[in-house]
Amino acid sequence: MTKTNFEKLDVYRLSETIADMIWDIVDTWQSFARDTVGKQIVRAADSIGANIAEGVGRGTHPDNKRFVRIARGSLYETKHWLRRAYRRKLLTQKQVEALKPLLDELAPRLNAYLKSIGRFPEVE
Questions:
Q1: Would you call 113 helix, strand, or coil by DSSP?
Q2: How is domain 5-116 classified at the architecture level of CATH?
Q3: pTM for this model (two decimals)
Q4: How far apart (Å, rounded) are the C-alpha atoms in residues 10 and 32?
Q5: What is the DSSP string of 39-94?
Q6: Measured on CA atoms in the order 86, 92, 40, 4, is the torsion positive or negative?
Q7: Side-chain half-sphere exposure of 12, counting CA atoms within 13 A
Q8: Distance CA 54, CA 31 (A)
Q9: Per-domain boundaries in the chain
Q10: What is the separation of C-alpha 68 from the centre of its chain, rounded to a whole number of angstroms?
Q11: What is the pLDDT of residues 53-76, one digit of tens each?
């Protein structure tokens, strides 16, 4: 399957890495934690990349920007749920140390991507 434009974006690939890491962590939790906090974290993390993809697919710069802003909101929601998970002792310090730099990197990348939309030719 050939890659579409959004799959070539570093910001999208970073969001996929984060979402996959979170999935792998949540998959190990017991059912109560997985069904409450876990599902929320997975949905929020998956939504980051999904909104980047949808924005590109909409085909207009204003729509793309709107969906990148939604992706940024999903990132903040992901951070909220991860804070809850850590407070409830569902995350280890090692897991936090693996996720935190990626999450800290994603926000400025989303902002830079948002600012770049419409300024440069589309990636083919």
A1: helix
A2: Up-down Bundle (1.20)
A3: 0.91
A4: 34
A5: HHHHHHHHHHHHHHHHHHHH-SHHHHHHHHHHHHHHHHHHHHHHHHHHHTT-S-HH
A6: positive
A7: 15
A8: 31
A9: 5-116
A10: 11
A11: 999 999 899 999 999 999 999 999
